[in-house]
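Summarise this fold before class:
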Amino acid sequence: MKKLIISVLLVNLLAACASEKPKEVAPEPTAATSSAAPAAEASSANAAAAVAGDALNDAGNALLSKRSAYFPFDVDAVQAADKPMVQAHGEYLGKNAARKVTVEGNCDERGSSEYNLGLGNRRANNVKKMLVAGGAKAAQVGTVSFGEEKPKAVGHDEAAWSQNRRADLNYGK
């Protein structure tokens, strides 16, 4: 009888340990969680415009000053909040055939290096698809994945991770 009770308890214990926990859905970065992001984006946007010497920031579209699309944990689809920005860059590239952009896919530190490189690549490719759908030529858009190697925020919490799950648009000359 004791063996039967112990067996039942062990089976229940193993079943409880084997069940998967539901995945967390990370909140989108907000002004409170990513206060450093807009400042960093604005300074990089100004630097890129100064180097390029064209009217990217003078295009009259505030969406063009934004250069990063953010992603929830373990997601590679462009989020609804970032679609207008990506489409505005696609329209800009369609009207300025001489311009080129590199989409850099990034991830937070969780996950293996190989997995994060693949996820960063999928994020960059999905942004590229939206740029091309918005009017850019495929030859104008390059992609690269940095995985977890180029964090925007240092830290080991959701506030930092939400800033590091992104795809950055870097314009060339």
